[in-house]
Amino acid sequence: MTDTADVVGPITDRVHECSWSASLETPEHADDRGLVIRHAIEAIEYTAPGRHVNLVTHGDHGHPLRYLYPALDERFDPREVEWEYVGRCGCGGHVTRVRIEP
Question: What is the pLDDT of residues 63-83, one digit of tens each?
């Protein structure tokens, strides 16, 4: 069985030295909540200190408070990253801004 992440590829392949947005709204993301979490973590890890990444998650999974925030709590030290819910985007997804502490 093929892992969806292998088919889709990484969310990014470089460290972003400026603030950026990671789209986690593809059909593959809609079908695989685990892929959303994996790519969200990758996006955060590839964001330079002092910057932020906007994680735009697929609306099919509901509010990220239910599934994404617990995964981020498990993975990241709250002294190193902090996130806040920004709101819904026009397409029905959800935007979470994650700041990487300098």
Answer: 999 999 999 999 999 999 999
What are 13-48's pLDDT values in tens digits?
778 898 999 999 999 999 999 999 999 999 999 999
φ, ψ for residue 93, nearest 5 deg = -80, -175
User: Domain residues of the chain, as ranges?
Assistant: 4-100
DSSP-derived pairing of the beta strands 52-57 and 20-24: parallel
What does the alpha-carbon distance between residue 65 and residue 39 come to, in Å, rounded to a whole number?
A: 16
How is the chain split among helix, strand and coil, in percent rounded to 5?
Answer: 35, 25, 35
Q: Order of strands across the sheet with 94-100?
A: 20-24, 52-57, 94-100, 81-88
Bridge partners of 33, per DSSP, are none
Torsion of CA 51, 71, 86, 42, to 10 degrees: 40
